Amino acid sequence: MQYKYLSGSLLEYSIKKEKLLLQIRKTIDNDTLIDLIAMGLPNEIIEKIDREKLQRPKDLHNEIGKLEYLATKKNKDTKKTKLSTDNKKNKTPCKICKDKEKGTGFHPEDECWFKD
Ligand SMILES: [Zn+2]
Question: Are residue 73 and residue 112 in the same domain, yes or no?
């Protein structure tokens, strides 16, 4: 599944969802909040977030912000040529992810999250 990124959209989503959930139930705990917010995120993003490190929804927002920055940066380069080059790029599984047993990431090795 391809997820189309709009600038700021995932971070906005994550912050809005936190507010919404807190409106519904003020006593909701941080772990539940994080899980509920994360459920709506694309797998591509969830795979790259270390859930163990997240203690508050704010930590999740930070991670999303970082990942989204990478995604938006990539989008800016390819915007003019639209989707044609993007599709080709994503058909090769990332070797770094595979070697590090992080699953099969379909992204260029240069942009790999697990790159040293
Ligand atoms: Zn990778």
Answer: no
